Amino acid sequence: MSERFTGSFTQQEPIPEAGIEAATEMLRHGRLHRYNLTPGEVGAVALLEQEFADFVGARFCLAVTSGGYAMATAMRAAGVAPGDRVLTNAFTLAPVPGAIAGVGAVPVFVEVTDALTIDTDDLAARAGGAKWLLLSHMRGHICDMDRLMRACADAGVTVIEDCAHTMGGAWAGVASGRHGAAACYSTQTYKHLNSGEGGFLVTDDADLAAHAVMLSGSYMLYQRNGAVPGPEAFEKVRYETPNMSGRMDALRAAILRPQLAGLTAQCERWNQRYRVLEAGLRGTPGLQVIERPGDEAFVGSSIQFLLPGWQGGAVEKVLARCLARGVELKWFGAAEPAGFTSRHDSWRYAPAQHLPQTDMVLAGLLDMRIPLTFSLDDCVLIARIIRAEVSAVWQGVAA
């Protein structure tokens, strides 16, 4: 009988006991709103903002209700206006172009390479008339940030980073999110910190930070935030910035603070599992692993691999055969969106573009979550199942 994996690809680890205790205490006193504090009290949201700013090395941090809200707020605060062209990776998830469209701007997709990162040559070719790049570090793959920032500087393009999948990662020793004018992170359940939904916006720009804080619904209580510029930064913006409430509530902050304290250790655990899976898949006939550059300190909370040149029917066979043995893979080349998985031609609120390089990559791109509830032995088994099923289908493809 064939081996079968019986674990869950959507089961996360429990919230740390310290987070549960903090949340329980908060539920007992009922002060869940971000500014509902007793005299002299520093709220959980403010404490979390300062702790996350310290973690990534940023001057300012705003805790918000979702990663998508963080992206939209960062763009508004940076000056993106309706009708502006905003560049972004053609390989990303729907909240990224959704955030661009949500501020009234126009998504302009840039080709991706078979390393799953933005193609800087294509970026330069498409940058004409665009002043902004919402850079998606999709599925935790960080491009050559030094090269990208040079290309954007040459083109007069301001970079805002989507770090939903790279919290805890770095490029050449610089924390992910510390290259652009602002960066956005997610604490949705399947990200590196878990509050159900939530996120962060960080920046070193006092004006951008002040605009973002006012947008988040600070009223005139902005000095109760944790990592904000001084009152002088708010003197003008507080009169001209609309309130679009979206700062994180205290309950979510309470369960996130203990998780943040343990994040570095959690990232190492993800990478241990990633390396076991990578080693088990390497050398599989017809399968190409994604090689990680030496300057990239990644967080392996998911793994991707390519079936280059395969036709859709053969890819679907791999998906079905693996699923029958308990291994759930996602395919970014499917004609129709499914679940969280979609591609650029599914987002019809954006202008259609010809992206042959991206289409070729997505046609053979498979993706898999790596929950920390998986043991290292689980990862050995999963890799063995994928290897066996890809090899079985490949024999027919090669023939």
In short:
By secondary structure, the protein is an alpha/beta fold.
Question: Could you characterize the architecture of this molecule?
Answer:
There is one protein chain. This protein has 399 residues and is an alpha/beta fold. The protein has helices spanning 17-29, 44-56, 67-78, 95-102, 120-126, 145-155, 206-215, 237-240, 250-261, 263-281, 312-324, 356-363, 376-398; strands spanning 60-64, 85-89, 106-110, 132-136, 158-162, 170-171, 174-175, 182-186, 199-203, 288-289, 296-297, 302-306, 330-331, 365-369. Strand 4, helix 6 (145-155) and strand 5 form a beta-alpha-beta unit.
Which tags fit this structure?
four-stranded antiparallel β-sheet; Aspartate Aminotransferase, domain 1; single chain; 2 domains; 14% strand; 399 residues
Order of helices and strands: HHEHEHEHEHEEEEEHHHHEEEHEHEH
Please report the distance between the alpha carbons of the first and last residues.
26 Å
* Radius of gyration, taken over Cα atoms and rounded to an integer in Å: 22 Å
Using the 3D structure, state the CATH architecture of the largest domain: 3-Layer(aba) Sandwich
Topology:
Blueprint: H1 17-29, H2 44-56, E1 60-64, H3 67-78, E2 85-89, H4 95-102, E3 106-110, H5 120-126, E4 132-136, H6 145-155, E5 158-162, E6 170-171, E7 174-175, E8 182-186, E9 199-203, H7 206-215, H8 237-240, H9 250-261, H10 263-281, E10 288-289, E11 296-297, E12 302-306, H11 312-324, E13 330-331, H12 356-363, E14 365-369, H13 376-398
Parallel strand pairs: 2-3, 2-4, 4-5, 5-8
Antiparallel strand pairs: 1-9, 6-7, 6-11, 8-9, 10-12, 12-14, 13-14
